[in-house]
Design a protein that fits this description.
Elements (H helix, E strand, L loop, with lengths): L14 E5 L5 E5 H9 L7 E4 L13 H11 L2 H4 L3 E5 L7 E6 L1 H9 L4 E7 L1 H4 L10
Parallel strand pairs: 4-6
Antiparallel strand pairs: 1-2, 3-6, 4-5
Helix pairs in contact: 2-4
């Protein structure tokens, strides 16, 4: 029997994995990110014009994700929930990517809403929320 050591997440936590532009694959613990945001770790909610954000490319996503966006569009409470973004190392950009909330952002864009709300995770804290050991 092979034992896998997963660090940074409980079995019940939501996680998100993305390949950054640098080619590095990163997994964040979304459950812990949202808990920290609600506890004030990342400061106040920030706002960005929806027109400044690129649209999601649905050609690479399955129908379940499309259904999630459509459901969010019908749920004012879900639409009002801030996303979680990771700050960018490039000072020209406020953040490099969303760790949570891309479906909410897309729903707001499709509804023609003017702004997207998000918490920005400072680079000094970002690594605390990484999950390792998932590559089985």
């Amino acid at each position: 029997m092979k034992v896998h050591r997963i660090n940074g997440a409980r079995l019940t936590d939501d996680v998100f994995t993305i390949t950054l532009q640098t080619g590095e694959e990163v997994t964040w613990n979304v459950t812990k990110l949202n808990e920290a945001a609600r506890a004030g770790w990342f400061g106040a909610v920030r706002y960005a014009p929806t027109c400044d954000l690129p649209p999601a490319d649905w050609s690479e996503w399955d129908a379940t994700d499309r259904a999630k966006v459509d459901a969010i569009k019908q749920n004012p409470r879900a639409l009002a929930e801030p996303a979680i973004a990771i700050e960018s190392e490039n000072p020209a950009f406020a953040f490099c990517c969303f760790a949570d909330g891309q479906h909410r952002v897309t729903a707001r864009q499709e509804l023609g809403m003017q702004e997207v709300m998000f918490y920005a995770v400072p680079l000094s804290l970002e690594r605390r929320f990484r999950v390792t050991g998932l590559d089985i």
